[in-house]
What does this fold into?
Amino acid sequence: MGFFDELAEYGDVVHCEFPRIDAVAVFHPEYIGDVLLGQGTYERWNFDELKELLDYEIAPRGLTFTRGEEWKQQRHFLQPMFGLDRLEGFSSAMVAATERLVDQWDDGEEIVLNEEFSRLTLSILTNSLFDFDLGENRQVITDAADELQTMADMSGFGAVEMLLPSWVPTHRNRRYTQAMDAFDATVETLIEQRRANPDEYEDLLTMMLEKEDDHEYSMSDEEIHDHLITFLIAGHETTAMALTFTWLLLGSNPEDYDRLETEVTTVLDGPPTADDLSDLPVTEHVAKEAMRMYPPAGMLFREATEETELGGYRIPEGTKVLLPQFTVHADDRWFDAPEEFRPERFSEDRSDQRPDFAYFPFGGGPHQCIGMHFAMMELKHIIPILARRVDFELLSSPEPEVNMELTLQPSEDVRMRVHKR
Ligand code: HEM
It folds into this structure.
């Protein structure tokens, strides 16, 4: 991240080279918009070079890796499942999972917050993807999500292991293969169950199967499988990190915490419902500001598919284009005192004064996060419930170092002591 801060000193479009890779980093919102909206000229960088080197692919037919027409069809098909009207049905499950988590904590208990949030968001996601009654299959799905996360861990020995091809029987590769085999078998069973009893379930998996009779487009089992893996990876650690950094920042900004507490105790008389969510501006601003300072996705990656021009510079075909959110979100041209936690900068009138794409935690353009409403809904359920029921006492550093892994992560566990109200 420091490297990108230094690059930004050279301008808004900066050439940089990595072994075998020619790239430009882009720091100006206008040019970021050109890239994200320039669908014919820029495609998602799929890391094909890296995949060849490592000899493994995760969910190649899932929404985060497909391109062109295949991606367009999938996105068109999946989009309605993530619309606000559909998501409202998941509200009570979000509340139940959060209440359960708080109930499990003892007053005075020391917890690792990032792990607790990771479990919480995974449980919400698995409930939404696969209905609530997962029984013994839950562990298989949790294990698969854990192993996928470990495979992406580049820190320490992980980086060395990661460079070994998937057929090398390292401990990590063996565990990964076992977990994924169990996951594949479980998903097959779940798909069969839903095909046999289509009216019994109301989960995202059923929605994916629903349109099979629609002759326009239907999904193969392989695609469904890859989408499920994609949602598991893209959808839980990102939200967990947004929550972790929200609480880290609230821990060292007591006035903002007081404002949040006032909102959730005056507007709500219990856990929020889907109808309450538009009446919680402080909650929303706090979450948005945390994602400004610590954007969970960290950086977006594109590739120029033809020669083009960006900000007055020639961009040859094949150039990789890097959009580092964490540097752009900390630019004092768009954010006063960017190092300070100031949730009120997300009030409507102040947001309107900023250029588009100065803030883009969920990306933008056609590939904008499909789970954005789902994630915001989760944050706006979980934050108020916690603020109403517990106080957290921060035991670790209020400003931990951060690592760029699959998501932006604190380099050390965030430890808190729970004080129940
Ligand atoms: C705070 C939480 C989240 C953050 C910050 C986040 C961030 C992002 C970003 C920045 C992108 C765009 C990537 C690009 O343009 O290259 C993206 C795409 C995506 N996200 Fe999220 N995400 C979050 C939660 C979720 C959830 C909950 C789901 C699913 C349930 C999800 C599924 C996806 C998928 C499938 C894509 C690919 C979309 C496409 O290319 O059409 N995300 N996300």
Residues 44, 63-64, 75, 230-231, 234-235, 238-239, 242, 296-297, 300, 361-363, 367, 369-371, 374-375 surround protoporphyrin IX containing FE (CB under 6 Å). The mean pLDDT is 89. The chain has one domain: 38-297+361-420. DSSP finds 17 helices and twelve strands in the chain.
